[in-house]
Amino acid sequence: MRYVALLRGVNVSGKNKLPMALLREALKATPFCDATTYIQSGNIVFNADLDITTCEQIIADLLKAEFDLNVPVIVREQSAIKDILKVNPFETRTIENSKFMSFGFFDKIPVTEKIDEVMSFSTEIETFKIVDDVMYFYCGVGFGKTKMTNAWFEKKLGVTSTMRNYNTTTKLVSL
């Protein structure tokens, strides 16, 4: 199975620094095959004959043991991410300006009451849709200006989340 691992909160420098070259080297000690990373924001694409939960645990344990990092790891089948792109409810807007489109990947499905509450913040300019454990977020004001950050969604929905922009998400299905 081809998987994509999304690491929450790793950076090129500063807090939670994780050099991707060192991560790729460390991944060689795992049962994963053909592991590669994409850009410095914590994206791993790999093959494994394991279930998602086991893959998440292996990566989390590796990050703690090798890099002293305790960061959330969300793993999805690569084909599932491809499907997410196919059903993007904001595809027309995305085609017009993909820099305003991102996807939130949650560790679990938020409870309906919290989804209903957070949906009241959706506007024409900052609009989002939550389907199961994925959020489609078209942020017309730009991600640097919105108050609806990843941390904001996590707090409101009671989930762990990591966001990826449209271009990164698209690239992760092609690797």
TrEMBL record:
Stored SUPFAM superfamilies: SP0830-like (SSF160379)
Q: Which InterPro entries match?
A: DUF1697 (IPR012545)
Give the signal peptide as a residue range, or say none if absent: none
- Name of the protein: DUF1697 domain-containing protein
> So where does this one cross the membrane?
none
Gene source species: Nonlabens arenilitoris
